[in-house]
Design goal:
Length: 357
């Protein structure tokens, strides 16, 4: 076990470096860097991409003559901008300095906000934790009982109509369902039952404990429901198929022959084996929902989370935010992969990844 974990941890290093190298290299060829953004704003262009579409040339940070709109600005001013953003150094030196800082978990400061990347992420984290945690928990709470029920009653009318409902829910995009909920229940055209902004009300601090809990769930009801609608479909079918596979095995027939009840067989013998695939995937599912964010859902419900942060940082070319969050989230994703394997081994001791080596 120890040797396997050590090997996996050592593999995290080259994988993480590879991710950062690829993304850092790509940004060197993408037009419209942070300096171009500032020049476009100072020249009144509004958006650097307007100049790119009409300029006909590539923009690479570090070459003064390539900056569209820089003709009216003093070269010394542009040189100061390059020095401030670190573009006066060669790309390799900038990458090595960045990785050395990231190893020490120093993610620097945002180019366009007077705040560190760490503090900025922590500021947006409550929204992402809320959406990711509750979406994952609700998906499991619905999928596991429903999947078990469908497996036990395979081929029945219940199985048929629930499968149809699952397919319909899976086919509806989350953002479209969110718009429908807004129209119906958030003052769009019918009832104004739920709010549309933030995680809490403005008078949240003045509420009692029960009032705060109720206010919190009142605000997150619609966005969480919007993100959950399609997420439980795959999990439900996975649970059903896993239970069906176990129910047909010989040890279940032997248990029935011994006179054990259906509930005893199902929950004492089948459950642990059938839930191996479902439960072991919990860390990965939570991380995918948590860090993936949902830009459209956050925008529709005026929630300022990691989804909007990532989009705004990419558009503004706020590289410290882009690369800082990429490094942190990639590292956590790789660690979660190891935790997923350990979950397999914990649920089913027969699995031994170390023996494969």
């Amino acid at each position: 076990m120890g040797a396997y974990i050590l090997r996996r941890l050592l593999l995290v290093i080259p994988t993480l470096v590879g991710i950062m190298v690829v993304n850092f290299t790509l940004t060197q060829f993408v037009p419209g860097g942070p300096i171009e953004q500032i020049i476009a704003q100072m020249e009144g262009g509004g958006d650097v991409f307007e100049g790119i579409s009409g300029g006909g040339g590539e923009l690479v940070a570090g070459a003064n003559s390539d900056y569209i709109g820089s003709r009216g600005l003093p070269p010394g001013f542009i040189a100061e901008l390059e020095k401030e953003f670190g573009f006066d150094k060669p790309p390799l030196e900038r990458f090595l300095n960045m990785m050395w800082n990231y190893v020490r978990f120093d993610f620097g400061q945002s180019y366009f906000r007077s705040i560190s990347v760490f503090d900025l992420v922590m500021e947006k984290m409550p929204v992402s934790i809320t959406l990711g945690l509750w979406t994952t928990l609700i998906a499991y709470a619905i999928s596991i009982p429903l999947g078990i029920r469908k497996a036990v009653r395979d081929g029945s009318k219940f199985d048929t109509w629930t499968s149809g409902a699952i397919i319909v829910g899976y086919a509806i995009p989350g953002f479209l369902f969110a718009i429908l909920l807004i129209v119906l229940f958030a003052g769009g055209s019918y009832w104004r039952i739920f709010p549309l902004r933030g995680l809490t009300s403005t008078n949240f601090d003045d509420l009692s404990l029960l009032g705060k809990i109720g206010d919190y769930f009142w605000h997150i009801a619609l966005p969480v429901l919007s993100m959950t609608i399609a997420s439980f479909a795959t999990l439900t079918l996975l649970t059903k198929n896993s239970f069906l596979d176990e129910i047909k095995k010989q040890y279940v027939l032997t248990a029935k022959a011994k006179g054990l009840g259906e509930s005893t067989i199902l929950y004492r013998h089948v459950f642990r084996n059938a839930m191996l695939i479902v439960i072991s995937g919990f860390p990965a599912l939570f991380i995918s929902v948590f860090f993936g964010g949902s830009l459209i859902i956050e925008t529709l419900f005026s929630l300022d989370g990691l989804g909007r942060l990532g989009y705004e940082a990419a558009v503004a070319r706020d590289y410290p935010v882009v690369f800082g969050t990429l490094f942190a989230f990639s590292l956590m994703g790789l660690v979660v992969g190891i935790l997923t394997d350990l979950t397999y081994m914990f649920i089913d001791p027969r699995i031994d990844f170390e023996a494969r080596g």
